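hiii so my PI (J.) wants the whole complex modelled not just the main chain, which honestly fair. so below is everything: four entries, each one labled with what it is. i double checked the lines twice but i was tired so who knows lol
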Amino acid sequence: MSSVPIPITSHGLQVACSACNLRELCMPVGLSDQEIERVDELVGARRKVARGMPLYLAGEPFQSLFAIRTGFFKTEVVSEDGREQVTGFQMAGELMGLDGIGTGQHNCDARALEDSEVCVIPFNRLSELSREIDTLQHHFHKVMSREIVRDQSVMMLLGTMRAEERLAAFLVNLSQRFVSRGYSATEFNLRMTREEIGSYLGLKLETVSRGLSRLQDEGLLSVSNKNIRIHKLDDLKKAMSPRC
Amino acid sequence: MSSVPIPITSHGLQVACSACNLRELCMPVGLSDQEIERVDELVGARRKVARGMPLYLAGEPFQSLFAIRTGFFKTEVVSEDGREQVTGFQMAGELMGLDGIGTGQHNCDARALEDSEVCVIPFNRLSELSREIDTLQHHFHKVMSREIVRDQSVMMLLGTMRAEERLAAFLVNLSQRFVSRGYSATEFNLRMTREEIGSYLGLKLETVSRGLSRLQDEGLLSVSNKNIRIHKLDDLKKAMSPRC
DNA sequence: GCTCATTATTGACGTCGATCAATGCGCGGT
DNA sequence: ACCGCGCATTGATCGACGTCAATAATGAGC
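here's the output for the full assembly
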């Protein structure tokens, strides 16, 4: 397989939104059959992105949103003076690209952390359709709003939490998102490096490593490289709060 | 005047959106006269909020967005364990409440830092109207997207910058926003306390105070309590980057 | 105009996380 | 299957920011 991301045009073999098992995650519920058909047409293409490759880069013209079908991504902002900040990790069913609407250009890099596949959602078609289907419009507004709320909770994390608290919060968040996708809450593989975790949490990679070792020493979990086994999820949640 | 925020119903004396001097800031350009008339009807009421009083509180049902006509606000998230994080400072022409759309409840407190007045924009009416006027729809999407981008740049600040860099970035940002409202870029009054600045920047109030003193010692600006006079705006911008 | 609580400044000291460094290991790629 | 580099772990030291504390200045409210 080529390592260059190539747009794949729609073909019969692909799963339509109406039959997609991620439907509850990225599409509104309560659409009529007729409306669902129109949403099916909205998703024009699929696109595979190999591990390490960008889905889009900051500065590229914004045209589409992307819904993750399979795989795992990170989004990353690079400032003028070269500082890098991972702004999020995205998994199946989540939407990427919302930050490009405002300026017409993508504001961050989106890069696959494992071989992935996304649905391409042309934004102007989404706009048109959401003018006609108010359930879709409202759903889209909710998704954007939730992204704002998510960002605010990251601000809270970065602004007020200690290193170990940030790590606990990060792992609990991952755990919950895996659960809602039908995976184990207590065992999963990290797709990102310690450095990427550190960038997201405002820490250096050594601090991330030390923090994980510490949580292991405390018996809350086991770490073996990228594999995480949470033994005491409740205590891990408590570790998000001060002095525990 | 009562110190309790009371909804004020619309009356003839009020400035319509079509005649509002903040129009370029909160409304789309390029509407037809007819469309502008309909937008005028969208803003049902004005509301005065006295200094220190909440415009809304986290947990309250979300029904409307608010556009600031005059005054100054802060938004603040309080976590379950009692931690407080100022997520932003808002001034005239800026929109508040977007974070409430996702859950139907406000996600943060919005509090006036000085006596203020806002336009109340019922969200369901905005939704309806934006289904009919696509310029309005697109403008609204842009505003939400820009909020996401703004939050991401705060994440960058909190995740990668040193105390003095954060302060410089904060002041430069304020400066730019004052300029675009026709005020001086180099002299303005802070409406918030050192503690509120600290909460926003992920610092303690003493560190904020020390940082301001340091920028003053370096000759970049003068501080006298809430009054800021920037002497070397260019150098202040440079102070946002490392090793300067 | 006065008063007092709030806000701001500054100093001394402690601590958490960054930095520098060395070693080991795992896994992706051929 | 093997190779080699990227990734992870751990230790020692340093420094930036937090904490604690004392004082000063401001301005909001009476």
